[in-house]
Structure formats: structure tokens, C-alpha cells
Design goal:
With 182 residues, this protein is an alpha+beta fold. It is elongated and about 95 Å long. The strands form two sheets. Strands 1-2-6-4 form a four-stranded antiparallel sheet, with no helix packed on it. It folds into two domains: 34 residues; 118 residues, Immunoglobulin-like, CATH 2.60.40.
Length: 182
């Protein structure tokens, strides 16, 4: 059987169909990009939210320990088992807002008991210091902007501290926190 020239396939009909498919796909992609762009722009400009009544305050918050540079951190260096030594520390709220001040014990030797109270050190020691930091941070009170005040840090070396522990580094670390009071 012979093929007549008008029935021969030359492939010339496919470029047109392929072109329509490509053009349609490009139109769909362009439509998606345009709708995403318009949708994103619309969301940026039309978003709203209701707020409950609130107080918005601004200011600075600066808490400085030992602003005068007179704190003696060597006061606890030569402690022996059973010793109890108190040391005052001045704190300064140098910010422009009132702050709730607290202190937490971030690390300590097992042989030391640490207590902290607001105010001057009592002459007979801080009463009942067995578990001061058991519940986490200790509140030292609300301090006004630019307020200076003293706290008392008391360290007791447990009476059952073995002789071998006396050559170890029996250190502790306190973390003071100030939160803006509104």
C-alpha cells in the first residue's frame, strides 16, 4: 500500500499543539503567582486584631551589684565547718522603671548553705536558712527607679563538712533578676 502525500505525517501539527500546552501552563503558573502575590499583599494590609485593655510602659532597666566597688568576696575564704559569715551587698536599680528584684542560687557546693534577705545583715544571723532556695528564687521586693538598697548574703559551712572537702573549691553563685513592674 502506498501512502499519499496528503496523508504523510510531517510533525508540523504538533508544534502548534505543544505551543498551546506550554502557553496554557505558563498562564496557569502566572495566575498562581499573581494570586499568591495579591493574596499575600492583601493579608499584609488588611489584618486586624482586637486587644484587651492594657498598659504599655517604656523605660530602661539596669541592675548593678556593688555599684561602689566595696564588696569583699574574700570574706568566706577561710571558713571552717560550722562557721556562719554574713556579708552585705549593695544593689542599685539604675533604670527608669520600678523593678521586682529576686535572687536564685545557680550553683553551690554541697557543704554550704546560702541565705539571702533584703536589708542589712542581722547581728544574730538570718533565722531559719535551711531551705531558702528550695522553691527557686527569693523575692527581694519592689525597687523604685534609681534606688540603692542593701541585701545580706549569709554563708554557713555545714558542721559535718569533712576535712578533705576543705581543700576543694567551695564556691557558690547567685543570679539576681530584675523584672519591670507595671
Amino acid at each position: 500500500m502506498s501512502v499519499q502525500p496528503s496523508q504523510q505525517r510531517t510533525g508540523r501539527g504538533f508544534p502548534l499543539a505543544r505551543g498551546l500546552v506550554v502557553a496554557s501552563a505558563a498562564a496557569v503558573v502566572a495566575g498562581l503567582v499573581a494570586s499568591l502575590t495579591i493574596g499575600a499583599s492583601y493579608a499584609l494590609w488588611s489584618h486586624s486584631a482586637s486587644l484587651d485593655a492594657a498598659v504599655i510602659a517604656t523605660g530602661s532597666l539596669t541592675l548593678t551589684a556593688d555599684p561602689d566597688g566595696v564588696f569583699d568576696n574574700t570574706a568566706w575564704d577561710d571558713m571552717l565547718p560550722g562557721d556562719r559569715i554574713s556579708q552585705p551587698l549593695k544593689l542599685h536599680n539604675g533604670g527608669t522603671v520600678s523593678s521586682d528584684i529576686s535572687v536564685s542560687l545557680s550553683e553551690s557546693s554541697d557543704w554550704l548553705t546560702i541565705a539571702v534577705v533584703a536589708g542589712e545583715c542581722p547581728t544574730d544571723g538570718i533565722p531559719d536558712i535551711s531551705d531558702d532556695f528550695a522553691d527557686g528564687a527569693i523575692g527581694l521586693g519592689l525597687w523604685d527607679a534609681d534606688e540603692n538598697d542593701s541585701i545580706c548574703i549569709e554563708v554557713t559551712m555545714n558542721s559535718d563538712t569533712p576535712q578533705s572537702a576543705l581543700t576543694d573549691d567551695l564556691s557558690f553563685r547567685l543570679l539576681f533578676t530584675a523584672k519591670q513592674h507595671i
